[in-house]
Amino acid sequence: MCLAVPAKVMEIEGSLATVEIRGVQRKASLMLLPEVSVGDYVLVHAGFAMQIVTGDDAAETEALWREMNGGPRTVE
Questions:
Q1: pTM
Q2: CB within 8 Å of 58: residues ≥ 6 apart
């Protein structure tokens, strides 16, 4: 199974972005989403930003990941 994870775009240099995923920064290609801006949230899969998502969507996904790892239920 493949998962795309939400990440916040911290910096953009050409077609490569520095994104933050759960506190870890890494590089992701913006070749599929050239319209992305710093501060946007994107879904990242296999090193590529695949889709722009809202901050609320990213927060909900993060809450569900915490819940799957034994955290308290916060999403209804």
A1: 0.85
A2: 6, 7, 8, 41
Strands 16-21 and 24-29: antiparallel
Neighbours of 21 (CB within 10 A): 15
For 54, residues 6+ apart whose C-beta sits below 8 A from its C-beta are 41
Q: In a 3-state reduction of DSSP, which class is residue 8?
A: strand
In a 3-state reduction of DSSP, which class is residue 2? coil
Q: Which CATH class is domain 5-68?
A: mainly beta
Domain boundaries, the chain: 5-68
Encode the chain (76 residues) as per-residue pLDDT tens digits. Answer: 678 899 999 999 999 999 999 899 999 999 999 999 999 999 999 999 999 999 999 988 888 888 887 777 776 6
